[in-house]
Amino acid sequence: MKDRILVVRLAGGWDSLNAVVPHREDAYHRVRPTLALSSKDLLPIDDRFALHCALAPLVPFLREGTLGIVHAAGLPGQEQRSHFEAWDDADAGGVSASASGRPHGGWLARVLAERPGEAGGLRAVALMDGPAALLAGAP
Questions:
Q1: How far apart are CA 6 and CA 13, in angstroms?
Q2: Any long-range contacts for 30-36 (C-beta under 8 Å, 24+ apart)?
Q3: What's the pLDDT tens digit per position in 5-36?
């Protein structure tokens, strides 16, 4: 099988702290007194994090090492904490003080441009409303 990358970007309605739960952190329970999940609703994945029980189908992929989770990730230089600028920076694969200083096009588009593709082969698909900025400029 050829190398593949699947990028899943969820927007709206996804509570990452109750999907990949830092259940052993006191702060999680302290700041979410009515939202924090109990251990009976969780599937431990390491000594710090657990998955919501509805994500049980992902556990085998985590165990075999074909799925990795990057939790609460951001990019250096995002001190402005703008959700919208953070999405733009993540799509571009770089951070700047202004949109004109970001890398050209989307990071996934640049990856595709560097890797040879099969003639006439499908390189990428985006299922979403509106343009997929991380594929901007893709071959």
A1: 21
A2: none
A3: 777 777 667 788 899 999 999 999 999 999 99
| Other beta carbons less than 10 A from residue 44's beta carbon | 14
CA atoms within 13 A on the CB side of 59: 14
Whole-angstrom distance, CA of residue 78 vs CA of residue 42: 31
Closest by alpha carbon to 69, among 83, 51, 90?
Answer: 51
Q: Whats the size of the chain, residue-wise?
A: 139
Q: What share of the chain is helix, strand, coil (3-state, %, to 5)?
A: 35, 5, 60
- In terms of phi and psi (left: phi > 0; alpha: psi -120 to 50; beta: otherwise), the region of 71 is beta
Whether 51 and 19 have beta carbons less than 8 Å apart is answered as yes
Query: Which pLDDT does position 36 carry in this prediction?
Result: 93
Residue whose token pair is 């989307």: 106
pTM of whole model > 0.70?
Answer: no
